[in-house]
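Operator note (shift B, R.M.): manual run for DNA repair protein RadC requested after the automated queue skipped it. Running by hand, logging everything below so the morning shift can see what happened. Input copied straight from the record, untouched. If output looks odd, do not overwrite the archive copy; leave it for review.
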Amino acid sequence: MSINGRKYLPEISVKYRRLAIERKPVRDTEEIIEFLMAFFDKDDFQIQEKIVVLFLDESDVPIGGKVLFSGTRSLVNLDWRIIYQLALVCGAQQVVVAHNHPGGEINPSEEDIESAIKGEAIGRFLGIKYRDDIILCQNPVDGEIKYFSFADSSLLLAD
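Run finished. Output pasted below as returned.
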């Protein structure tokens, strides 16, 4: 970056914003989803596909989370570099990636499966556990959230 003819190097910073969520270990998928739902907006759950990433320490305690990518009703693109860059910066030992299917189809698409395999491989390379990949859907009548967990379905490699 250049200002008044002088070259400057921009400083990189990371900001944390506190959410009113108790930091406790998450041991199962239901507890993970409880944390994830703090980042999803239920009002647009059936309108736009979003990807939320939850970062955990070695004791299964969430460090933080973020809506990283938003897309259309049927498509959202993600960038694994950004996910794992944030994981490294915040010192995460594990990541959980979740996205919603606005159309209501709970089963993973071929793209979802390929993405989870890729995300897990990158995590293994970096020494960060790819804890789970979760698809969320909302019942349009009663608002109930249902989910599909890659880990619970044994679609991720065991430790």
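Quick read of the result: The first helix runs from residue 29 to 36. The radius of gyration is 17 Å.
Leaving this for review. - R.M.
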